[in-house]
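If your schedule permits, I should be very grateful for your opinion on a structural question. Please examine both parts with care and let me know of anything in them that strikes you as inconsistent. The record follows directly beneath this note:
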Amino acid sequence: MDSSGIPFSSRFHWDSQPNPLTELLGEKRRAKARVLDLTESNPTHAGFAYPDEEILRAISDPRALHYNPDPRGMLSAREAVSRYYAARGVDADPSRIILTASTSEAYTYLFKLLMNPGDEVLVPRPSYPLFEYLAAIESVVVRQYPLRYDGAWHIDFAALEAAAGPRTRAIAIVNPNNPTGSYMKKDEWSRLQQWAATRDLAILSDEVFSDFAFAPDAGRVATLAGETGGSLVFAMSGLSKIAGLPQMKLGWIVAAGRDHARAIEGLEWIADTFLSVATPVQLGLERLLAATESVRTQIRERTASNFRVAKEIFGSNSACQILSAEGGWNIVIHVPGTRSEEEWALGLLRDADVYVQPGFFYDFESEAYMVVSLLTEPAAFREGLERLSRYVDR
């Protein structure tokens, strides 16, 4: 008998061992060291003032005691999402909206809709390290296309087109990108849409950070939810980021462009299989979006203020360089290539009690980059970056 045990799916081949940075962080915390964590991504742990009573009232509707499921999501909740877009000048009819438990679940619905096992999705590099896991669980293959930096971020279209193969079915964009904070520009979108239409590729637009721009820019694309062009487009967002409520577990897909009605029919079949969105949060969605406007404002103010602090600390005399960012919750800092990113991150944590994420976590193609969160509470953010600057300069 094979002593290795029951053979599990080959989808799950990831190494579960903690990396050296995680191990060192654990040692520091067990020793009760005062570590300045510059990676905070959970808004509920970031010191924001939430309207607690309003949030609790929103999810306390007595109608939640009765279960009347709608695969697309309750009409009242989809209407609330539609009004969210209308306030941003975008027409997103409720009939084009499917509710999900999260943006991650939205991706899995779209992979099920668009792809057979072994089909491919093009994803940006650098980007948040989630695509490979979500795709592998659905037996989908990830192919990366690079974002290039020349003082601003942009899509490398030659590399994008070269990455597409006969089994490519979709292109994922993150707008603004995480961690680069770069938005897609209108000229990029025009080129991307035209190329995708000629290849019959769907476009998956992850827009969870779209409300958090540092400044307006008429040249950028904020959302694809209102598109009417020749490509099939799916815009995704949810409460986790725009309301700072990851625990409420509600996201959505807005289908737009060519053949979107048939896509919605397919998504409804998929959603009907899972029926994953809880009734209380659907009933409370309108009130949750209204109640958390103050949270969105706090996040915008925090991220913009911390970005200014970072530019102040890493002035012209610093060995570190902040890469251009337009919004989102992170910034990227270029540090000297005299050490690897892992060596820099480990040294900062070991010697300066500062925890940052190395660029290879986000698949940066070259060394050496550090990623820090703009959600970090201001005092810790300033002190952490000052320690980082001194550590690198010396």
